[in-house]
Amino acid sequence: MTDLLLRDARLWGADTLTDLLIRDGVVAATGPGLPAGDAPVEGLGGKLLLPGFVDAHAHVDKTMWGGPWVPHNAGPGLAGKIRNGVESRPALGLPSVDYITALLQQMVVSGTTHVRTHVDVDTAMGLAAVEAVREALGRLGDRITAELVAFPQAGLLTSPGTAELMDEALAAGVDIVGGIDPAGLENDPIRHLDVVFGLAGKHGAGVDIHLHDGGPLGVWQYDLIIERAKALGLAGKVTISHGYALAEVAPAVQERVIADLAAAGVSLATVAPAGAAPLPLAALREAGVPVGAGNDGVRDLWSPYGNGDMLERALFLAQRSRFVRDEEIEIALEAATYGGARVSGRRAGYVPGDPGDFVVVDARTPAEAVCVRPVRSLVVKSGRVVARDGRLV
């Protein structure tokens, strides 16, 4: 069933309770006293109705969620984590369809209705991770939608044969071309971006590049990516993930880069990392640059942390941005809802035509929802109730 009437909902930004009608999986109408017709009715009793959470940066293929505890023993730095992932995953049975399924279920009951997940493509396992993620998604039966990023975690240029595998993945329907530290890891940013944007052009795909490099080196790569996006007419189809450098440079440089991002239609994704300065969310919002939030890796060989909960991720983002006012905290929540949707080229909200993707929480305001993080009373995907009180339906 993709029809549903949500009765007496408290909408984000509204002062009075109202109803919201979903028909054929999308919002059909909002207003008090809407007739249900033949649609099932869920009485919300004044609970807060939020747009479905969008995880704009995940790595579900790497997860060990639901499996035995594995102590973290990766070497230091990016190279150490990459090496540990490649060397340790065979003995642990990774990628595991069962673990991926368990994490996706956890994400659904926590209110995530759409996820962008980077999926490793490398010469050691080919497209096995892509196949595992697709199988896990199939098990969820449309309770969550996903877009896959062909991600060269172990390097694109430094691992010959990876570009060809990524080409194969994109030809098989993977949505987005991934990249990683064109300078810091690959040592040849021009050639790296030639390959990434060349694959995007060949397949009509978007681009999402991990950029951990900080300071002037990172900003230079921002400029290279922005230049490509503008030259190739890819507004709305290019994302820079992490992008630590933007928070590390002088205010004048930051202001210039933000303006360039807005002009080129390049979005950002952040995971609110504990060890890095937060992106300037308020300035990015004012400039109109889409910013999505994500969980990154959840309990994997990169990190023992995480639980797949985007409301908790919004809390981390607010805390690390030192937000305390309600209107500030809402900026963090926007990254987990509207911002993530914009990064993914999707709509979100309460107007006719918006997806029927919603999360219900027992809170009076969005800021309270972020700070308290109540159990998700109801999760709705395309007009279908998919979770209730923290349990899959």
Describe the structure.
This protein is α/β, with parallel strands linked by helices. The protein has helices spanning 77-92, 97-109, 128-140, 162-171, 189-203, 215-231, 251-264, 281-287, 310-320, 326-336, 338-343, 366-372, and strands at residues 4-11, 18-23, 26-31, 41-43, 48-51, 53-58, 112-120, 145-151, 176-180, 206-211, 238-242, 266-270, 291-293, 358-361, 376-381, 384-388, 391-392. Helix 6 (215-231) links the parallel strand 10 and strand 11 (238-242). The protein is globular, with a radius of gyration of 20 Å. It starts with a strand and ends with a strand.
Structural class: alpha/beta
Low-confidence parts lasting 5 or more residues at pLDDT below 50? Answer: none
How far apart lie the N and C ends?
13 Å
Query: How many E-type strands?
Result: 17
Task: Describe how the helices and strands are arranged.
Blueprint: E1 4-11, E2 18-23, E3 26-31, E4 41-43, E5 48-51, E6 53-58, H1 77-92, H2 97-109, E7 112-120, H3 128-140, E8 145-151, H4 162-171, E9 176-180, H5 189-203, E10 206-211, H6 215-231, E11 238-242, H7 251-264, E12 266-270, H8 281-287, E13 291-293, H9 310-320, H10 326-336, H11 338-343, E14 358-361, H12 366-372, E15 376-381, E16 384-388, E17 391-392
Parallel strand pairs: 1-4, 1-5, 6-7, 7-8, 8-9, 9-10, 10-11, 11-12, 12-13
Antiparallel strand pairs: 1-2, 2-3, 5-14, 14-15, 15-16, 16-17
